[in-house]
Structures are given as C-alpha cells and as structure tokens.
Write a structure and sequence with these properties.
- With 467 residues, the chain is an alpha/beta fold.
- The protein has a single domain, classed as Amidase signature (AS) enzymes, CATH 3.90.1300.10.
- Helices cover 39% and strands 16% of the residues.
- The protein contains 14 helices and 15 strands.
- The strands form three sheets. Strands 1-3-2-6-8-7-14-15-11-9-10 form an eleven-stranded mixed β-sheet, sandwiched between helices. A two-stranded antiparallel ribbon has the order 4-5.
- The radius of gyration is 20 Å and the shape is globular.
Amino acid sequence: MTPLPTVREAGAALRSGALSSCELTQACLDRIEAENPRLNAFLTVTAEAAMAAAKNADEELRAGLDRGPLHGIPVAHKDLICTSGVRTTFGSKVFADAIPAFDAAIVERLRNDGAIMVGKTHLHEFAYGITSNNPHYGPVRNPWDPERIPGGSSGGAGAALASGMTMLATGTDTGGSIRVPASYCGVVGLKPTFGLVSKHGIFPLGFSLDHPGPMARTVEDAALMLESLTGHDPRDASSVDRPREKYSLEGATLAGLKIVLPQNFYFEKIDPEVRALVLNAAQQAESGGAVFVMGRVPDGEQLNVVAQAILLSEAAAVHEPYLRKRRADYGPDTLALLDTGRALPATHYIQSQRLRKRILGVHLELLKKADFILTPATPITAPPIGAETVDVAGELHDVRMITTRLTRGINALGLPALVIPCGWTRAGLPAALQLIGRPFGEAALLRAGAALEAAIGFHLDRRPPPQ
C-alpha cells in the first residue's frame, strides 16, 4: 500500500484538488480492514460516519470554507476518550456497552477543526498498564513484530500510526502512556505540560498526573495537532487559562541550544543498543550546533517512588465506586494495582505530594541553565507479549517497572516531554529519545524536536511491512 502523506503534504493536495478527504479517509479505512485483524489496534471503526464527514470536508473546501491544517485529515481517538454516540469502553468489561452522550473536549476541538474520526483505538484496561495486553479484548500487537507489545496504555494508537491506519491519534499519558507506545512503535508522542490540554470527557486514572496529548508520525504533524488540542476549558478544573498557540517550526535549528545529557539515572539500567542509538542522536545534535552540558539530575528513583504512590492512591479513589459493584469484571493486573492503592496509607500520599514539589523545584532550576534535558525514552525496545521480566545488561527487571522507569517521574513534574524515534536495533525494532522542556515551552520543544528529527535522518519510508 502507498504510504500516507504527512499532514502538510495532505493539506496541500486537498487544497489543490489533487487529493480528496474521501480518498485519504478511505485509504486509512482500507488499511484498517487489512491490518486490524492482525494487530488489534482498533476496538471500534466508524467507517460510515468517517466517510460522511470526509465528504462534508471536501464540500466545505470546494465552497471556500477552510477549517485549518487538520481539515479533512483522519484521526483516531483512544478509547478512554468519550465520543458522542460511539461506543467507548475505556478498555474495560465494566463499560463494554457504554455509549456516551457527549464528546470529550479534544474530540470537539479536532472535529471543529475539520479532522475526520476513523475509530477508537485499543488500550490497556482503564489505561492502567504499559503492555496493552487487555484481558477483555485481547492484546494489541506491535507492527514491527506482532509477537511483541506496542507499549501502553495508548498501544492501539501507536500501532495504528506505525502501520498507516491513521494519520493522527489522541493519547493520554499518566506514567508514559503516550511516550512508551511512541518509543516501542517508532512514532512521535508528546506529553504536554500539565493542564495545557483539557481532560474533560476523558476517564481519569490519576487526577494530578493525567496528560492528554498528540501522537503522530512526525514532529510537525504532532505540532499541527497540538494547535487544535490546546486552549482553556472551564469544564476542566486543572485547565490553564492560556490562549491557543501556533506551533510554527519555521527556522527550527539546533544551533545554540543548551541541552543537559544526564550523567546519572537515565543512562543506567539500559539496553546497550538503545544507549548507543540515543548517544548517536546526541552526537548528531552536537554536529548541528547544540551544546551539551554534562550534569546530574535529581534522584530519579525517588521521583518514581513519589509518582507511583500518587498514582496508586488517585487510581484507587477513581475506581472506588466501580470496585464496590463490579469487582469481578476487572482484569487481574488492574485489580491488583487498585487493591494496592486502597491499602496505601494517606500519609504516603501526602508525603509524596510534598516531595513532588521539592523535586520539581530542582528540575526548574536545572532548566534555567539549559533549554532541555535529553534522555532515552525507554530503557529497552518492545518486549514479547506476555513477558513479565526482561534481561537488561545481564539483570532481570520487571517489564512494567523498567518500561516506565524514564517516563513516570515526568508526569509527577508536569513538564512537557517529546519522544521521537532515533534508530533501529539489529533486530529491526525502533528505539527513541525523550526531550524534556520547560513548563509551557512546547513551541521551543517542538522546534528542537523537528531539528533533531531532521539531523537524525528519520524517514517515513521506513515502515513496518504489511502481512
């Protein structure tokens, strides 16, 4: 099948008449029909509604109504995100037949900007996990190797993007759930600053840790999508009162950027191939004019303990009413985590919140002296489906803990973090790096990411082979 264009390429073709939204949407639906039985990336496909919306998008463009860069562009929504009149399961048996009567804020915004929803993507149950091995709806499979996980919890989104079933996808990130599947599937994922994107209409996992954001195939596509997602929303108490921003990548350069390359934590307990690929990307950035500062970051292990305690407590609070009535309908791994959270003393949660503020302050001081922090996105590439442990440099590690080791703490800090592919291992699996920026510094972060993407030489023509 012909590779999908980027959002900018598609937009130019739509406006010149060389391509229609109907053709673009049908290409995605054809890919879903061909690949989804193998990869299980979508739980619901909205083919009829998508084609009707695409036809309307084409008619609007012909009539001179242009809603912006996403007009006529196919997008998929994580099935944690409410869609009016369309089944939304949250990856659970508890809500297997739920049909919301309203759209989440980010669904509204993308639709108003002309994006075409092609369906709802699969996920880890209630977004509480990183494998997307769902006990109710089966595992999502990684397009690069279907015997491996795509990461989670937004695993369906990552798999759908990598295999060309959609051009854009929404994700949510509470401990790495956008960035991990971006890393394992070889796509781009952005966890924005906490509060920048509205959570209205998204089933919560951790009230103070949840970050909705864009997943895409290039940094520019993610930037164009973020423009649509942002803006104050009074329906979300954590939504910041900031105007929508244009994330222009014009003039993106690495020259003069000061980037911290941590000397501790982030390059420990890491697969040697992943380390080499990330350090090679750093060398490419240095060749492009970036200045690297070798430094130490605050205790990452302590930050992860803090983030874990907060998530265990907040997730247990979210699910308390459902556990009383539908306990038997939860999968065993999700249930075990929720029971652990219910048993956690309140003092642990309070002390974790106090430590969280202290560690954030140290990071903010570090980011006054440098523009970004560059790290691996995940310490490993995608492990096999069902694996509980993985060997990293001769030591066995729990798959869940090692996978989120480099992402989880950033949720507690609320800082923006961008994941981009940085190469492939000898086994043909993608590896990725993570750029961490200043609060509400998404514009600078995306420009740096685009320049780094170009320096690495990542190309869309390297895609997983279809079956």
